[in-house]
Structures are given as structure tokens and as C-alpha cells.
């Protein structure tokens, strides 16, 4: 009898952290849903942009963080999703519940096609192959003028949900929030499944994974497909968010931006993808506001000095993270949390 009671107590004790995590997650989602009621439209704009970046970063994290497939072409797949929405909606009048899945599917197909070199090459050679994808797709965006309208770009009408046009920051924010929650849950479930374990085995040592029965060809292409699907969904939402699509939005710097988000957040971590995307999205705005505040207190415009150096400062922060915390913000959060729990105990 006492043994049964002890086992019940142990089970309850083990389950309580999971219950607490779910409670905090629910509180976090409720807070995000209530955000438009508490913050001005300026910050809701950044919240929407952050949500799009989180989705795209999840995709690159699946490819790079969990499977070890380095990519510098992620922005191009985001562009595929955005142009898919602009073309299907602008020329054929298709609703958002058709254009967004179509954007993800087309980006998946193109991502798998460019992922074929990963079956034979790794490391730096794979980076060069994905970099080629970035330049090829950007060339298509610019020069296939009959479809993409070249440098002029394409306008996008607001998404319409249940007869309501999502034509302001608040309404489109809720659509983005829905996709952020769904994509995060899906990514977590994938990583904790047999597929996720195969991804991690390939990342650690693909030859060993092949020996123990992992179908490397299938899982590498699946990783590229999933990562590109996430990028396509992010691009579709970005098209509705900006209401305009042109090639300059999907240059190499955007791919570096997503790469930085994965590295800073912590490769191979769902939480890391969220924290990394938040960091790299809000850091430029933080630097701008800080320079304005310091400049106003000193009596001169500091922003004119720091603005040209913004990329340099951003790069220095990335290098500092690689040196001081190579496992990213997720590991920093884990260590801090464990320390607080020890202190409370």
C-alpha cells in the first residue's frame, strides 16, 4: 500500500514541471493575444514582423540546427512563398486559405530540388550550393518580369477572413499569431518524433546513422522540404503583412539574418529559434532607440553616426555570442532557470 502511495507521489512530482510549463505557455499565449489591447500600433507592427521571422527561423532551425544542413538560401524560399501569394491572389483572385498553403507547397518543391546536392556534399560545399539557390532565385525574381513584374514588384490585397479584410496591424497580427502557434507546436512534435531523432542522428554523424538503419537520403530531403515549407509560409504571411512584394526584400542579407537568429538563439532548440528571432528582430530597433536617447541627452544626433555602423555592431554582437555563449540564448535561459530553481530549493 505504501509503495503505491510513494509511486503516486513520485508520478505527481515528475508531472508537475510539465504542468507548470504548459501553464506558463498558456499564460504567454494569452498575453500575446492581449498585446494589441495594451500596445500602440507601432509595436504591434514589430510583433507581427517578429512572428513571421519566428516561423522562418523554425524552418532553418530544422534544417541546420537539428539536421546539420547549412543553408544560405533561406530568404529565397521566403521569396517563393511571397511571390506565390502575390501571383495567385493578384491574377487569379484566390483567397488566403488557398494561397498560403500553395506558397508552402511550392517552396517545399523548390527547396527539395535545391536540396538534392545535400545527398552527396556537406559542410562548406553545401553552403555554396544553397548560396547558388539564393542567387538563382533572386535572378528569377528580378528578370522574369512577365510573372514577377521585375524590380517594380507586385501589390497584394489584404487577406479576407470570414468576410473581414485584415488591412491593419492588429488584424493581420492575429493571423500571424495563429500560424506562429501552429508552426511552433508542429515543429516541437516533429523533433520529438522518430523523424526528429533521425534528423539529430544525421547531424551528429550521418555515416553512423546510415549504419543503424536511418534512410539518409529520405530524411535529408525531408529536412529541406520542411525547412522550405516553413519559409514559404513565412513569405506568404510577409506578403499579406507588407501588402507588397519585390526582389529587394529577399536578398542575401535576409538569409544571413535568419542564420544569425538560429546561431544566437541556439541551434537545435525550439525555444532558441523563438529567442533568436526576437533578438535579431528587435536589436536594430533597440540600437536606434538607444542612439536617439543618448544623442538627445548629449545634445547631438548620435543616430547619424551609428546608423552606418549598424551592420558592424550587429556583426560584433554575433561574434560575441559565438565566443561567449556558443549554444545561444536557449542555453543561457536554461542555466539561469536552473540557478533560480536551486536558489528557491
In short:
The radius of gyration is 22 Å and the shape is globular. It has a two-stranded antiparallel sheet with strand order 1-4. The chain has a two-stranded antiparallel ribbon with strand order 2-3. Residues 1-16 have low confidence and may be disordered.
How would you explain this protein's 3D organization?
With 345 residues, the chain is mostly helical. It has one domain: ABC transporter involved in vitamin B12 uptake, BtuC. It has 15 helices and four strands. The chain has a two-stranded antiparallel ribbon with strand order 1-4. Strands 2-3 form a two-stranded antiparallel sheet. Helix 1 runs antiparallel to helix 7 and helix 11 packs parallel to helix 15. It is globular and about 65 Å long.
What is the strand and helix layout of this fold?
Layout: H1 2-38, H2 41-66, H3 74-92, H4 96-115, H5 124-143, H6 145-148, E1 154-155, E2 160-161, E3 164-165, H7 169-191, H8 194-204, H9 206-211, H10 216-242, E4 244-245, H11 252-265, H12 270-298, H13 303-306, H14 310-324, H15 328-344
Antiparallel strand pairs: 1-4, 2-3
Helix pairs in contact: 1-7, 2-7, 2-8, 2-10, 2-11, 2-12, 3-4, 3-5, 3-10, 4-10, 7-10, 8-10, 11-12, 11-15, 12-15
